[in-house]
Specification:
The protein has about 400 residues and is an alpha+beta fold. It has a domain at about 5-120 and about 250-390: Peroxisomal Thiolase, Chain A, domain 1. The protein has 11 helices and 14 strands. The chain has helices spanning about 25-40, 65-75, 90-105, 165-175, 180-195, 230, 265-270, 295-305, 325-335, 345-350, 355-370; strands at about 5-10, 15, 50-55, 85, 110-120, 125, 140-145, 210, 215, 255-265, 275-285, 315-320, 375-380, 385-395. The strands form 3 sheets. Strands 1, 2, 3, 4, 5, 10, 11, 12, 13 and 14 form a 10-stranded mixed sheet that branches. The protein has a two-stranded antiparallel sheet with strand order 6-7. Strand 8 and strand 9 form a beta hairpin. Helix 1 (about 25-40) packs across helix 2 and helix 3 crosses helix 11. The longest helix is centred in the middle third of the chain and has 20 residues, at about 180-195. The two termini are about 25 Å apart.
Length: about 400
């Protein structure tokens, strides 16, 4: 068994729902970030890529029919470069990286481009196909933007509650207050704004230029002026007496991310030294309505397989689907909150489902590179009760 390494990562700015990226097809977004990521390793001949593993949570519209393959063709890669698309909902692009790292470690492949894309703005409405021709009565179009749709009646009702209601239940279970959630959300916006202003994202984000010449350079969802007082004025979104609002949950977003993985021996062909080693992976599942808490076990498993403990970890990138679920995970890990999402999280940056895992990995690798610290964890919760986690080792890191 060989090791697998992260060589490069990039992403587009994440756009707001119906915002600056609303006119960009998801396959074009994916092609754009594939080209942008390969531009960071100009010595790599794209024909050397053994496979492209791409994440996408929807696949019901313009991202249908294997968007990974469509994107490689649109990006101008040789037709000899294969591609597949994987769907583990919010964890799709992180799953793509896990799949690629296993293939590299087994010796099946040397260089694999991974990533993911989601346009939640352009997710279509769908109609179930009738079981017979010309049925009587009306048919309802179902939005594929987010959450359960066309639910099987055999599913227990407690499993199929909305994502928001599921996290209201999580807040009840762990007694996480509205005030604490709002404070966490404000921190996300403040740190994201600081990271952009300090130039952290300059080399990690590839701007998107529209046909009309306008350019999106920065994540659209960041609100530098956010405050706990402003968020406290927002009405609960899922229960009249609830604690979850539009301010302490991640927004609907558009965007794409990519991560280039390879073996140690691939460094010469890639033309650069690796940034980090994939040291451990974790997958976990529990009751669907408890999905927000699933990263706890996934990260613990990844750490165990890496042979390190939470006391060794210097950086954590945890997807902020909701402030409450992020706080529940941080509490359960008993990790210092100050090492979590120091460059902002999904509440501020956005959460384009199929792209978020790649964002986490890229940000984590860059944080370790910036600090010189050794161990980091990326984790993400996934609808229907799952989670994924990855431990990265900074290959030039310190003893910590």
């Amino acid at each position: 068994m060989s090791d697998s390494y992260l060589y490069s990562a990039a992403r587009t700015p994440f756009g707001r729902f119906s915002g600056a990226l609303a006119r960009v097809r998801p396959d074009d977004l994916a092609a754009h970030i594939i080209s942008g990521t390969l531009a960071t390793v100009p010595d790599l001949d794209p024909a050397e890529i053994d496979d492209v593993v791409w994440g996408n949570a929807n696949g019901a519209g313009e991202d249908n029919r294997n968007v990974g393959r469509m994107a490689t063709l649109l990006a101008g890669l040789p037709t000899s470069v294969p591609a597949t698309t994987v769907n583990r909902l919010c964890g799709s692009s992180l799953d793509a990286a896990l799949i690629a790292s296993r293939a590299i470690e087994s010796g099946d492949m040397d260089i694999v481009l991974t990533g993911g894309v989601e346009s939640m703005t352009r997710a279509p409405w769908v109609l179930p196909k009738p079981e017979r021709a010309f049925p009587a009565g009306d048919t309802t179009a179902v939005s594929t933007t987010l959450g359960w749709r066309l639910v099987n009646e055999r599913m227990p009702k407690e499993w199929t509650v909305s994502l928001g209601e599921a996290n209201e239940q999580l807040a009840d279970r762990f007694a996480i207050s509205r005030e604490r959630q709002d404070e966490f959300a404000v921190r996300s916006h403040r740190l994201a704004d600081e990271a952009w202003n300090e130039g952290f994202y300059d080399d990690l984000v590839v701007p998107v230029t529209h046909a009309d010449g306008t350019v999106l350079r920065r994540d659209e969802g960041i609100r530098p002026g956010s405050s706990a007082e402003k968020l406290a004025a927002l009405k609960p979104a899922f229960r009249t007496d609830g604690v979850i609002t539009a301010g302490n949950a991640s927004p609907l977003s558009d965007g794409a991310s990519a991560v280039l993985l390879g073996s140690g021996s691939a460094a010469d062909r890639i033309g650069s030294a690796p940034l980090a080693r994939v040291a451990g992976r974790g997958v976990s599942a529990l009751d669907p309505q408890m999905f927000g808490f699933a990263p706890v076990e996934a990260a613990n498993r990844a750490l165990k397989r890496a042979g390190v403990s939470w006391s060794d970890v210097a950086a954590v990138e945890l997807n902020e689907a909701f402030a409450v679920q992020a706080l529940a995970c941080i509490d359960a890990w008993e990790v210092d909150p100050q090492i979590v999402n120091t460059k902002g999280g999904a509440i501020a940056l956005g959460h384009p489902l199929g792209a978020s895992g790649g964002r986490l990995l890229g940000t984590l690798a860059r944080r370790l590179q910036e600090s010189g610290q050794r161990w980091g964890v990326a984790a993400i919760c996934i609808g229907v009760g799952q989670a994924l986690a990855v431990v990265l080792e900074n290959v030039a890191g310190s003893s910590r």
